[in-house]
Design goal:
Two copies of one chain form a homodimer. Chain A is an alpha/beta fold and 226 residues long. The first copy, chain A, is 41% helix and 23% strand. The first copy, chain A, folds into two domains: 117 residues, Response regulator (Rossmann fold, 3-Layer(aba) Sandwich), CATH 3.40.50.2300; 94 residues, Winged helix-like DNA-binding domain superfamily/Winged helix DNA-binding domain (Arc Repressor Mutant, subunit A, Orthogonal Bundle). In chain A, strand 3, helix 3 and strand 4 form a beta-alpha-beta unit.
Chain lengths: 226, 226
DNA sequence: TGCGAAGGTTAAGGTTGGGTTAATATTTTT
DNA sequence: AAAAATATTAACCCAACCTTAACCTTCGCA
């Protein structure tokens, strides 16, 4: 079953699209602005992303360029108003794979979605560091052949850390990207890290998760010691 | 030729800065509030952005966070009043690259602008001096293959010194940039420098850290000649 | 030669960031 | 609705870290 993301600030349009998709048996996540769209994209594996060009907080082109720079090559369909098209079309080397001028025909959109998803299906998306392999599509984490059991939050944290490896991720970044600005008691992160480490311990991989005091955490092979 | 943006609500200060910049052959756009600043930023490519912390409509921190969320990584220098500094300094991971306490010396501002513009939009990921390599992203310092173990403050000091190399950094600058105005006993800096030297000694690199008597410290290869 | 200023060294607390655990609350699944 | 899985909170611990204070060294200069 297809799993899409729609990033669109017009709620009426969005709900129409989503309803139509559900009739076609297509799952569709939804974000009404660029920033939460970006968060969803980095934390989930979509087959196709549908982006409105004009978005609050972060416009579609910027968002698209942004995710491409992160190495995410999920197919992107850009939605744009007819009059905005002319001067924007050249910008499509930002990395969009297709575009559609509003107002568009729903069937047309579905066709393009299916085409794009077919084009890149079977493409493996995973992160591997040390013996640890995180599969972004099915959200599984293996060490050799052993499956780790992680909570949703634990998985998000691990995904963030692994996709930034070997760089450090600050506590603030982590909190912001996982909880938004409605951050809970700062202890929560500690506890999640602790749970994560316990799971990693089960497969003797917990030394991959390094604490950078005064900053945050990093996921990488080498040991910061002496 | 450098092309900057200054966002500052105090018009007298702003015009002073702009005049001084023009003498230095630096172009500088100007906005007197956060919103028009944001508009200019999204529409133009600046080498450096100078932001006042307290702005009408949208304060500097918010603006900074906002543009970072849009994926704009133009270097930002934050201007702040001395008394506002202490409680704000921790918020600087909003994405500012540097800050300056008002009132500041114009030459100081020019130096920082030039430094930041040189290091290509914060894309500089590591600093290397002698055999020492400081990686800004993963917060590690290596000499050859040996990892140095530094405290958070030690790392900050080293970062400041290395990023200003081969220039000297004054004690006052060091203290101001690391502790804000809530500076501790002046001895603290001495002790931190001492710890730093001990760590550098472990890899025979302590002669990189030079004392400039009556001024501060410098991090560079050659000896400061008499 | 002796004094003061600037910097360096050392060791003793005090503080705190991060870790741990367990109880409680929330959400999801059944 | 009960049970199970997750998430959050609170209380506590500890080692690393920071600061302080007292003392030491060096150097310029009266």
């Amino acid at each position: 079953m297809l799993n899409l993301l729609l990033v669109e600030d017009n709620i009426d349009l969005a709900s129409g699209v989503i309803d139509y998709f559900s009739l076609e048996n297509i799952r569709c996540d939804y974000a009404n602005n660029g920033v939460s769209g970006l968060n969803l994209i980095t934390e989930n594996a979509y087959q196709v992303i549908i982006l409105d060009l004009g978005l609050p907080q972060m416009d579609g082109l910027t968002l698209c360029r942004n995710i491409r720079e992160q190495g995410i090559d999920t197919p992107v369909i850009m939605l744009t108003a007819r009059d905005a098209l002319a001067d924007k079309i050249k910008g499509f080397d930002a990395g969009a794979d297709d575009y559609l001028v509003k107002p568009f025909d729903m069937d047309e959109l579905v066709v393009r979605v299916r085409t794009l998803s077919r084009r890149r299906s079977g493409q493996m998306k995973s992160l591997t560091i040390g013996k640890l392999k995180l599969n972004l599509l099915d959200k599984t984490v293996y060490c050799d052949d052993q499956l780790l059991k992680l909570s949703p939050t634990g998985l998000k944290i691990l995904t963030l850390l692994m996709s930034n490896s070997p760089n450090a991720v600050s506590r603030n970044t982590l909190i912001e990207r996982i909880w938004g600005d409605a951050s809970p008691d700062s202890n929560s992160l500690k506890v999640h890290i602790h749970h994560l480490r316990k799971q990693l311990d089960l497969v003797q991989q917990s030394e991959l998760l390094h604490t950078i005091k005064g900053h945050g955490f990093a996921f990488r092979l080498d040991q910061p010691h002496e």
